[in-house]
Amino acid sequence: MSKVASMFHPKRLDLSGFVNTRLIRDHNKRNAFAQMEPERQALRYIIRNTSLPQRTRAQAQLQLSQMHCYTRPTQIKNRCVASGTARSVFRNFRLNRFQFRMQALAGELPGVKKASW
Amino acid sequence: MAQSRILDLVKTQCRIFSLNFNPQRLRLGNKILRQRLRGPALAAWYPKKTVSFRDLQNTYKPLGLTTFDEAEDDREEAIQMSVGFYTRFALLHTD
């Protein structure tokens, strides 16, 4: 398998809303991970299974470590859907703190209200 | 209760609930197989593209229906205007 990131690029961009290069890259990583996850889990099972021969397990280890880095879940970073920012992103809203504040004050987030007591 | 009876009970339990019977507590990696796949949930983080005007156009063109894209029309008009301007400009300065 060739180890170029371009093999995970879609023919046409299937995203709407805010888009930038880093966001698209993260999206590609997510798709790559989703595509290769069964294979990764199978290899992980072989590695953890102590009843299998040592050689098989070592081979599985090697194969897992040689998979493309885009198929690794640790490569995925939650980014803000509205601005592409990677820092201080609320998981529940998929927005970073500033976008969250702006949208909440504008009343675009149902059920969110500025605290006051 | 005898140890063998308890083992039998656990064995039956495992068979019924399709679990792995492993009294020696060997590390068989079954916890990996029990994990759920989280790829689809992770891949759905960013909003997917919905239907665009071009998709609509592509579906209705073969049926012989006409569509009017205002932005595209504006763009073509602007091109026509600029082309007209530059040809007139070129004609003035050829002599």
Automatic annotation (TrEMBL), chain A:
GO terms for molecular function: structural constituent of ribosome. GO terms for cellular component: mitochondrial small ribosomal subunit. GO terms for biological process: translation. Keywords: Ribonucleoprotein, Ribosomal protein. The keyword Ribonucleoprotein applies. Belongs to the universal ribosomal protein uS14 family. This is 37S ribosomal protein MRP2, mitochondrial.
UniProtKB/TrEMBL annotation, chain B:
It comes from the Eukaryota. Its main location: mitochondrion. One of its GO terms (cellular component) is ribonucleoprotein complex. Pfam families: MRP-S33 (PF08293). Keywords: Mitochondrion, Ribonucleoprotein, Ribosomal protein. InterPro entries: Ribosomal_mS33. It is found in: Mitochondrion. Belongs to the mitochondrion-specific ribosomal protein mS33 family. This is Small ribosomal subunit protein mS33. It comes from Penicillium subrubescens.
